[in-house]
Amino acid sequence: MPAAAARPSLAACIITLNEADRIDACLDSLAFCDEIVVVDSGSTDGTRERAAARGARVLERAFDGYRSQKDFAVQAARCDWVLCIDADERVTPPLRAAIEAARDGGFASAAAYRFARCTHYFGAPLRHGNAYPDRVLRLFDRRRAGWRGEREIHEQVGVDGPVARLAGDLDHQAYRSLGDQLRRLDRYSTLMAQHLHARGRRASLAAIVLSPAWRFLRGYVLRAGFLDGWRGLVFALVEADYVRRKAIKHYLLARGAAI
Fold first, then answer.
1. 19: how many CB neighbours lie within 10 A of its CB?
2. What letters, b where the CB count within 10 A reaches 16 and e where it falls short, cover 156-167?
3. Which of 142, 145, 146 lies closest to 162 in space, CA to CA?
4. Does the model's pTM come out above 0.85?
5. DSSP secondary structure string, 20-86?
6. How many other CB atoms sit within 10 Å of the CB of residue 195?
């Protein structure tokens, strides 16, 4: 009879900047991890102190991109299996149970795992449209996976090996307010436009008109975002606006204009 797989140790990795109002709930949801690594990029609101008081190992590093910051956190961990989440995310009890079950089996079925992320928007979860299930790959063996590539925004994990799915949701308390969302998406649209321009991607006027329309149609109609009521409508409109801003900025950069 084969021996049971060893239960791997697990580290949680988080990057932060001024998350004192959200870091406690995030860390509470990670109590099952053997280690918590927080990489902070200059918080002034007590984030580092709150994280350290809850047992996290806190490191400071100047921010030079989301991918680079997350990769630094992964490499700083003492465990080979890592769970990467953001300070505005929480591991729900069902997701924790699924992670623990896979861990008890030695994470034998895959080199990395995906699970659904559920965004809470103005007091209620979005369960349809482009917002859900929004499967994210955040649990992986760093010996076979990691934050790879050149893109620093909307960063992705590259994996050498099989990827499996886990049940349960990662709760995402995404935005403190509409203003917070708009400011964040404006920053993201600039970073993405710069990335596309640097990669030599073609910019067109058609993309400015058609891409936002398709994003709205796909999320609100084809993926039934309308079932989330007024929240689904607002989310779909703001998301389409992000796509429009990205396309406009890309178009301007291609013509040597400042954005």
1. 23
2. ebebeeebeebe
3. 145
4. yes
5. TTTHHHHHHTTTTSSEEEEEES--SSSHHHHHHHTT-EEEE-----HHHHHHHHHHH-SSSEEEE--
6. 17
Distance CA 147, CA 71 (A): 5
Q: What is the pLDDT of residues 226-254, one digit of tens each?
A: 999 999 999 999 999 999 999 999 999 99
85-128 pLDDT tens trace: 999 999 999 999 999 999 999 999 999 999 999 999 999 999 99
Q: Which residue, chain included where needed, has tokens 């190992």?
A: 57
CA distance 18 to 41: 9
* Mean pLDDT over each residue of the chain, to the nearest integer: 96
CA distances from 226 to 116, 120, 211, 223 (A): 20, 16, 19, 8
SS3 label, residue 117: strand
**Residue-range domain boundaries for the chain:** 10-172, 178-254
Q: How far apart are the first and last CA of the chain?
A: 65
For domain 10-172, the question of CATH label 3.90.550.10 is answered with yes
43 vs 176: CA distance, rounded Å: 17
Question: What DSSP line would sit under 175-232, residue for residue?
Answer: -SSHHHHHHHHHHHHHHHHHHHHHTT----HHHHHHHHHHHHIIIIIIT-GGGGHHHH
Are 171 and 89 in contact, with CB atoms under 8 Å apart?
yes
Q: DSSP state, 99?
A: H
